[in-house]
Amino acid sequence: MAGRPGYLTLPIFSVLAAIGYVYYTAVFLAVPRWLGLSTAAGVANAVAFTALAAACLATYAVAVRRDPGRVPPGYAPDVEDAESTVHEIKRKSGDLRYCQKCCHYKPPRAHHCRFCKRCVLKMDHHCIWINNCVGHENYKIFLVFVLYAVVASFYAMILIIGSVMHSVPKDEQSGSDSSRTSIIICGVILSPLALALAVLLGWHIYFILQNKTTVEYHEGVRAMWLAEKGGDLYHHPYDLGVYDNLISVLGPNIFCWLCPVSNTVGNGLRYRTSYDIPISTPPM
Protein backbone atom coordinates (compact mmCIF):
# COMPACT_ATOMS: atom_id res chain seq x y z
CA MET A 1 0.00 0.00 0.00
CA ALA A 2 1.36 3.41 -0.95
CA GLY A 3 2.17 5.92 1.78
CA ARG A 4 1.75 9.65 1.68
CA PRO A 5 3.58 11.35 -1.22
CA GLY A 6 7.20 12.10 -0.35
CA TYR A 7 7.36 9.49 2.43
CA LEU A 8 9.77 6.56 2.31
CA THR A 9 8.07 3.27 1.51
CA LEU A 10 9.16 -0.31 0.88
CA PRO A 11 9.32 0.17 -2.94
CA ILE A 12 11.56 3.22 -2.44
CA PHE A 13 13.88 1.28 -0.14
CA SER A 14 13.89 -1.50 -2.75
CA VAL A 15 15.01 0.92 -5.47
CA LEU A 16 17.75 2.37 -3.25
CA ALA A 17 18.92 -1.13 -2.31
CA ALA A 18 19.01 -2.14 -5.99
CA ILE A 19 21.05 0.93 -6.92
CA GLY A 20 23.49 0.26 -4.08
CA TYR A 21 23.82 -3.43 -4.92
CA VAL A 22 24.46 -2.84 -8.61
CA TYR A 23 26.93 -0.04 -7.82
CA TYR A 24 28.89 -2.19 -5.37
CA THR A 25 29.00 -5.14 -7.77
CA ALA A 26 30.04 -3.06 -10.77
CA VAL A 27 32.67 -0.86 -9.11
CA PHE A 28 34.11 -3.08 -6.38
CA LEU A 29 33.75 -6.53 -7.95
CA ALA A 30 33.43 -6.34 -11.75
CA VAL A 31 35.90 -3.54 -12.48
CA PRO A 32 38.71 -4.92 -10.23
CA ARG A 33 38.26 -8.43 -11.64
CA TRP A 34 38.29 -7.31 -15.28
CA LEU A 35 40.38 -4.13 -15.51
CA GLY A 36 41.80 -3.63 -12.03
CA LEU A 37 41.39 -0.49 -9.98
CA SER A 38 45.10 0.25 -10.25
CA THR A 39 44.93 0.74 -14.03
CA ALA A 40 43.89 3.86 -15.89
CA ALA A 41 41.03 2.01 -17.60
CA GLY A 42 39.79 0.64 -14.29
CA VAL A 43 39.86 4.03 -12.57
CA ALA A 44 38.16 5.71 -15.54
CA ASN A 45 35.33 3.18 -15.59
CA ALA A 46 34.90 3.32 -11.82
CA VAL A 47 34.71 7.13 -11.87
CA ALA A 48 32.32 7.16 -14.84
CA PHE A 49 29.98 4.62 -13.25
CA THR A 50 30.12 6.45 -9.92
CA ALA A 51 29.08 9.70 -11.61
CA LEU A 52 26.24 7.89 -13.39
CA ALA A 53 25.06 6.28 -10.15
CA ALA A 54 25.16 9.67 -8.41
CA ALA A 55 23.03 11.17 -11.20
CA CYS A 56 20.53 8.32 -10.78
CA LEU A 57 20.29 8.93 -7.04
CA ALA A 58 19.96 12.70 -7.44
CA THR A 59 17.20 12.55 -10.05
CA TYR A 60 15.42 9.79 -8.15
CA ALA A 61 15.43 11.86 -4.95
CA VAL A 62 13.97 14.85 -6.79
CA ALA A 63 11.29 12.69 -8.44
CA VAL A 64 10.30 11.34 -5.02
CA ARG A 65 10.22 14.71 -3.24
CA ARG A 66 8.96 17.14 -5.90
CA ASP A 67 5.27 17.95 -6.00
CA PRO A 68 3.92 16.93 -9.43
CA GLY A 69 1.71 20.03 -9.60
CA ARG A 70 -1.37 21.00 -7.61
CA VAL A 71 -4.50 22.71 -8.86
CA PRO A 72 -4.60 26.20 -7.28
CA PRO A 73 -7.40 26.76 -4.73
CA GLY A 74 -10.44 28.36 -6.27
CA TYR A 75 -9.43 27.52 -9.83
CA ALA A 76 -12.24 28.01 -12.36
CA PRO A 77 -11.93 27.82 -16.16
CA ASP A 78 -12.63 30.98 -18.12
CA VAL A 79 -15.00 29.80 -20.84
CA GLU A 80 -14.97 33.27 -22.44
CA ASP A 81 -11.20 33.31 -22.85
CA ALA A 82 -10.63 33.56 -26.59
CA GLU A 83 -7.03 32.35 -26.26
CA SER A 84 -8.16 29.03 -24.80
CA THR A 85 -9.64 27.05 -27.68
CA VAL A 86 -10.07 23.76 -25.82
CA HIS A 87 -12.13 23.17 -22.67
CA GLU A 88 -12.29 19.56 -21.55
CA ILE A 89 -15.77 18.37 -20.65
CA LYS A 90 -17.34 15.28 -19.13
CA ARG A 91 -18.10 12.48 -21.56
CA LYS A 92 -21.75 11.99 -20.58
CA SER A 93 -23.17 15.32 -19.41
CA GLY A 94 -20.95 17.65 -21.45
CA ASP A 95 -20.33 19.85 -18.37
CA LEU A 96 -16.93 21.24 -17.46
CA ARG A 97 -14.87 18.69 -15.59
CA TYR A 98 -15.32 19.07 -11.83
CA CYS A 99 -13.71 17.03 -9.05
CA GLN A 100 -16.29 16.13 -6.42
CA LYS A 101 -13.57 14.96 -4.01
CA CYS A 102 -11.39 18.08 -4.22
CA CYS A 103 -14.38 20.41 -4.76
CA HIS A 104 -12.92 22.40 -7.65
CA TYR A 105 -12.84 22.37 -11.44
CA LYS A 106 -10.17 20.39 -13.23
CA PRO A 107 -7.82 22.24 -15.62
CA PRO A 108 -7.14 20.58 -18.98
CA ARG A 109 -5.13 17.35 -18.65
CA ALA A 110 -5.54 17.28 -14.84
CA HIS A 111 -6.84 14.14 -13.11
CA HIS A 112 -7.63 13.06 -9.58
CA CYS A 113 -5.21 10.51 -8.09
CA ARG A 114 -6.85 8.10 -5.67
CA PHE A 115 -3.48 7.35 -4.06
CA CYS A 116 -2.39 10.97 -3.50
CA LYS A 117 -6.04 12.01 -2.95
CA ARG A 118 -5.70 15.21 -4.97
CA CYS A 119 -5.91 16.50 -8.52
CA VAL A 120 -2.58 16.52 -10.34
CA LEU A 121 -1.74 18.88 -13.21
CA LYS A 122 -1.08 17.03 -16.47
CA MET A 123 -1.14 13.74 -14.61
CA ASP A 124 0.71 10.93 -16.36
CA HIS A 125 0.40 8.16 -13.77
CA HIS A 126 0.96 7.32 -10.12
CA CYS A 127 4.25 5.51 -9.62
CA ILE A 128 4.60 3.29 -6.54
CA TRP A 129 8.38 3.20 -7.02
CA ILE A 130 8.64 6.91 -6.19
CA ASN A 131 5.50 7.00 -3.99
CA ASN A 132 4.38 10.01 -5.96
CA CYS A 133 2.41 11.05 -9.00
CA VAL A 134 4.20 11.87 -12.22
CA GLY A 135 2.79 15.15 -13.48
CA HIS A 136 3.52 18.58 -14.89
CA GLU A 137 6.24 19.58 -12.43
CA ASN A 138 8.23 16.33 -12.17
CA TYR A 139 7.64 14.47 -15.43
CA LYS A 140 10.93 15.55 -16.99
CA ILE A 141 12.86 14.63 -13.83
CA PHE A 142 11.19 11.22 -13.83
CA LEU A 143 12.06 10.73 -17.51
CA VAL A 144 15.71 11.76 -17.01
CA PHE A 145 15.98 9.37 -14.05
CA VAL A 146 14.70 6.48 -16.18
CA LEU A 147 17.18 7.45 -18.92
CA TYR A 148 20.11 7.47 -16.48
CA ALA A 149 18.91 4.18 -14.99
CA VAL A 150 18.80 2.55 -18.43
CA VAL A 151 22.30 3.77 -19.31
CA ALA A 152 23.63 2.67 -15.91
CA SER A 153 21.99 -0.76 -16.23
CA PHE A 154 23.50 -1.51 -19.63
CA TYR A 155 26.86 -0.05 -18.53
CA ALA A 156 26.80 -2.40 -15.52
CA MET A 157 25.89 -5.32 -17.80
CA ILE A 158 28.94 -4.61 -19.97
CA LEU A 159 31.19 -4.54 -16.89
CA ILE A 160 29.61 -7.74 -15.57
CA ILE A 161 29.92 -9.62 -18.86
CA GLY A 162 33.51 -8.46 -19.29
CA SER A 163 34.48 -9.52 -15.77
CA VAL A 164 32.86 -12.96 -16.13
CA MET A 165 34.56 -13.63 -19.45
CA HIS A 166 37.92 -12.39 -18.22
CA SER A 167 40.40 -15.17 -17.44
CA VAL A 168 41.85 -14.86 -13.94
CA PRO A 169 45.42 -16.13 -13.36
CA LYS A 170 45.59 -19.49 -11.56
CA ASP A 171 47.25 -18.05 -8.45
CA GLU A 172 44.30 -15.67 -8.02
CA GLN A 173 41.44 -18.04 -8.86
CA SER A 174 40.76 -19.18 -5.30
CA GLY A 175 40.03 -15.63 -4.14
CA SER A 176 37.93 -14.70 -7.18
CA ASP A 177 35.36 -17.52 -7.16
CA SER A 178 33.09 -15.84 -4.62
CA SER A 179 33.23 -12.50 -6.43
CA ARG A 180 32.46 -14.23 -9.73
CA THR A 181 29.38 -15.85 -8.17
CA SER A 182 28.19 -12.49 -6.82
CA ILE A 183 28.74 -10.87 -10.21
CA ILE A 184 26.75 -13.59 -12.01
CA ILE A 185 23.86 -13.24 -9.52
CA CYS A 186 23.81 -9.49 -10.08
CA GLY A 187 23.80 -10.03 -13.84
CA VAL A 188 20.87 -12.44 -13.63
CA ILE A 189 18.87 -9.92 -11.57
CA LEU A 190 19.92 -6.94 -13.67
CA SER A 191 19.08 -8.40 -17.09
CA PRO A 192 15.25 -8.31 -16.81
CA LEU A 193 15.45 -5.02 -14.91
CA ALA A 194 17.47 -3.36 -17.68
CA LEU A 195 15.03 -4.67 -20.29
CA ALA A 196 12.00 -3.42 -18.35
CA LEU A 197 13.56 0.03 -17.90
CA ALA A 198 14.44 0.21 -21.60
CA VAL A 199 10.84 -0.63 -22.55
CA LEU A 200 9.55 2.00 -20.11
CA LEU A 201 11.89 4.61 -21.56
CA GLY A 202 10.88 3.79 -25.12
CA TRP A 203 7.21 3.92 -24.15
CA HIS A 204 7.57 7.42 -22.69
CA ILE A 205 9.65 8.65 -25.62
CA TYR A 206 6.76 7.56 -27.84
CA PHE A 207 4.37 9.53 -25.63
CA ILE A 208 6.58 12.64 -25.70
CA LEU A 209 6.79 12.63 -29.49
CA GLN A 210 2.98 12.71 -29.58
CA ASN A 211 2.63 14.99 -26.52
CA LYS A 212 0.49 12.45 -24.70
CA THR A 213 0.34 11.29 -21.12
CA THR A 214 -0.32 7.70 -20.11
CA VAL A 215 -3.88 8.66 -19.13
CA GLU A 216 -4.44 10.42 -22.46
CA TYR A 217 -3.11 7.42 -24.36
CA HIS A 218 -5.72 5.12 -22.82
CA GLU A 219 -8.43 7.74 -23.31
CA GLY A 220 -7.27 8.26 -26.90
CA VAL A 221 -7.64 4.57 -27.74
CA ARG A 222 -11.35 4.78 -26.91
CA ALA A 223 -11.73 8.17 -28.64
CA MET A 224 -10.07 6.81 -31.77
CA TRP A 225 -12.39 3.80 -31.78
CA LEU A 226 -15.46 6.00 -31.40
CA ALA A 227 -14.25 8.38 -34.13
CA GLU A 228 -13.60 5.55 -36.58
CA LYS A 229 -16.98 4.08 -35.73
CA GLY A 230 -18.59 7.38 -36.70
CA GLY A 231 -16.50 7.72 -39.87
CA ASP A 232 -14.26 10.48 -38.50
CA LEU A 233 -10.53 10.77 -37.87
CA TYR A 234 -9.26 11.29 -34.33
CA HIS A 235 -6.48 13.81 -33.75
CA HIS A 236 -4.88 14.34 -30.36
CA PRO A 237 -5.49 18.06 -29.67
CA TYR A 238 -2.15 18.58 -27.88
CA ASP A 239 0.00 17.13 -30.66
CA LEU A 240 1.97 20.17 -31.90
CA GLY A 241 4.55 18.37 -34.02
CA VAL A 242 7.68 16.51 -32.93
CA TYR A 243 9.90 19.52 -32.10
CA ASP A 244 7.24 21.53 -30.26
CA ASN A 245 6.17 18.39 -28.41
CA LEU A 246 9.75 17.89 -27.20
CA ILE A 247 9.98 21.53 -26.10
CA SER A 248 6.71 21.33 -24.17
CA VAL A 249 8.12 18.49 -22.03
CA LEU A 250 11.91 18.95 -21.98
CA GLY A 251 12.03 22.75 -22.09
CA PRO A 252 13.06 25.36 -24.67
CA ASN A 253 16.84 24.98 -24.13
CA ILE A 254 17.95 21.93 -26.10
CA PHE A 255 21.26 21.81 -24.19
CA CYS A 256 19.35 21.21 -20.94
CA TRP A 257 17.09 18.44 -22.23
CA LEU A 258 19.16 15.70 -20.60
CA CYS A 259 20.14 17.72 -17.53
CA PRO A 260 18.60 16.70 -14.18
CA VAL A 261 16.71 19.98 -13.81
CA SER A 262 13.04 20.76 -14.27
CA ASN A 263 12.37 23.60 -16.70
CA THR A 264 8.70 23.04 -17.45
CA VAL A 265 6.85 25.27 -19.89
CA GLY A 266 3.83 27.11 -18.51
CA ASN A 267 2.00 26.80 -15.20
CA GLY A 268 0.13 23.59 -16.00
CA LEU A 269 -3.28 25.28 -16.22
CA ARG A 270 -3.26 25.93 -19.97
CA TYR A 271 -1.60 24.15 -22.86
CA ARG A 272 -1.11 24.95 -26.50
CA THR A 273 -3.19 22.87 -28.85
CA SER A 274 -3.11 22.08 -32.54
CA TYR A 275 -6.14 24.37 -32.91
CA ASP A 276 -4.26 27.44 -31.71
CA ILE A 277 -2.99 29.95 -34.27
CA PRO A 278 0.83 30.09 -34.10
CA ILE A 279 2.16 33.44 -32.96
CA SER A 280 4.54 33.56 -35.92
CA THR A 281 1.71 33.22 -38.42
CA PRO A 282 0.52 36.64 -39.70
CA PRO A 283 -3.24 37.31 -39.71
CA MET A 284 -5.02 36.87 -43.00
Automatic annotation (TrEMBL):
Transferase keyword on record: yes
Residue ranges occupied by any Palmitoyltransferase DHHC domain in the UniProt entry: 94-218
Lineage, top ranks: Eukaryota, Viridiplantae, Streptophyta, Embryophyta, Tracheophyta
Subcellular location per the Swiss-Prot or TrEMBL entry: Membrane
GO molecular function ontology, one term from the record: protein-cysteine S-palmitoyltransferase activity
Record field: transmembrane: 7-31, 43-63, 141-162, 182-209
Catalysed reactions, semicolon-separated: L-cysteinyl-[protein] + hexadecanoyl-CoA = S-hexadecanoyl-L-cysteinyl-[protein] + CoA
Membrane topology: Multi-pass membrane protein
UniProt xrefs under PANTHER family: PALMITOYLTRANSFERASE ZDHHC16
Enzyme Commission number(s) from the entry: 2.3.1.225
Keyword terms: Acyltransferase, Membrane, Transferase, Transmembrane, Transmembrane helix
Source organism superkingdom: Eukaryota
Keyword GTP-binding: no
Protein family: Belongs to the DHHC palmitoyltransferase family.
GO CC aspect terms: membrane
Protein name: S-acyltransferase
PROSITE patterns cross-referenced by the UniProt entry: DHHC (PS50216)
Domain notes: The DHHC domain is required for palmitoyltransferase activity.
